[in-house]
Design brief:
The protein has about 600 residues and is of the alpha/beta class. It is built from 22 helices and twelve strands. The radius of gyration is 36 Å and the shape is elongated. It starts with 15 loop residues before the first helix and ends with a helix.
Amino acid sequence: MDYKLKNTVSKDAFRYGYLSKKIAPFLKPHVPRILLNMLLAIPLGLLDGVVAFALKPYMDCVINGQTWKFLGFTIEQNVLATAIPFGIVTFAVIQGLLRYSNNYLTDWTGNKISNSLKVELFKKLTSLDPVFYDMNSSGLVLTRFFTDPETASKNIINTIKTFVMTSFGIVGLVGVLLYNSWKLAIIGVGIMAIAITPVTLIRKRIKKVSNANMVVGGSMTTNINETFAGNKIMTAYNLQDLQNKKFEKQIKEQFNLTISLTKRVGWMSPIMYFICSIGIALVMFYGNHLIITGQMTAGSFASFVTSLLLLYKPVKDLGRTLTDIQTTFVALGRVFELFDLMPTIKNCENPIKMHDLQSSIDFEHVFFEYEKDVPVLKDFSLHVNKGETIALVGNSGGGKSTIVNLLPRFYDIKSGAIKFDGVDIKKIDIRSLRDNISFVFQDNFLFTGTIRENILMGNRNATEEDLQNVIKMAHLDEFLATVEDGVDTQVGERGTTLSGGQRQRVAIARAMIKNAPIVILDEATSALDNESEAIVQKALDNLMKNKTVFVIAHRLSTINNADRIAVINEGELVELGTHEELMQIHEGYYKHLYEMQFKNQEINI
């Protein structure tokens, strides 16, 4: 599965049947309202022809005093003179009520469809493997998952409604044209059809510019996210001008794309005006002949010309609506590409539920790579007994974090096997596998909310007593006693209102309350000062009791707590044993690493 969102180009952008089938499940719950909305759009469109139609009896009967015959009925001048003004008011009231109802239904259904599409896309987003987040920028992901659904689903009802309304508006006005003179109607409608032809010529340009705009929009969002998250680095290194120039460049690029489309679309309107003016001129020229020869009344001609002039607006709207529909389907194409993304890490048929670790964890000749043909782990084998603490040490980039990330199947290996109690993890139910593993990272992520909410994410069924126990074991109680709201203190976005040591202890409490048999500590104290490390280390000692622990070690104190030390170098296990055993190896990797990295820590202690 290729997770890279490239250029946001959709091969299905103009496969209208395919995309209509895809969007149908999201429309289905709202079909009654959608149908009612479309039904209301029909009279709204047809009412455009009422004014034009009324001109014939008004001119011929009210102004010129002729008797008007319609559908076998004869209507006198005085009746029409009274009825037409009241009819105009009634017409305005009816049209207003219909338009309000139509707009309300459009917004209601559009928002409902948009919301349900966003919910399903968010579920898709949360189901994807970590490699998806590794490969795509946050800005592109946000744009593709939340801007496109808004464009696609919210506008689809409005564009379809507008299409129906303008189509019936055209039908009504063409009906008036034919009623007054079929000869003139052929001229007028023929010219109008020629006028909208250019609309069909720009759809590829719309697709190209829309996709390019999405790329730039994603880059802009990424820039804003990075400015927010990296504001201290930006300030410390005086990067404001660099960020500003980057954003200005993106804004300029987006402007150029927009103007590029405007230049290509904008000429349609004057061309349509010009073509339509030719049609009107021909109609007037031939209409004069019909009036002079008595083949047409002045009222019929006035009604005809009014209908033709009114026809220009729905025809123009139809052209714009067709453009909007194309834009909507371009967005739909991109949206449903996202639905086609499938997680590569998934359960096999009839997976085995894991309830606890009974005996051991084994890495058997594991090969792994993030990028094709760029190996990260090479023939890695390691046997870990239940209840054992294994420290992983080695140079940066050697594969230590990769090893612990493979245990919960964040990634799948290329070859070999990882086994829990002799069972390949690919045969174990993923949810139950991850339920048995707790993580504490170097930079633990806290979600917006309270300390209580963040801790209980480890076990949402925990009792208040469980919560208070882990708070004490994580050495959070003294800190919580100093803040007004205690455990209900807000942590801010990403936990920014807490210090590094406090965030670590909240994360440790979250891992404790989960009470999983396997604990992974990924450089959990490397970023802390000595005082904070001492407190956090006490909390970690409580977390590690009676657990099987994998710890990536950058501190001597962590290594001293380990039963064995695994030395990783360039993706290979080069040494394995206790501190004393490894120090006996002449010119060994660990001995060299210890003397270079850990010995100074021992002296400082």
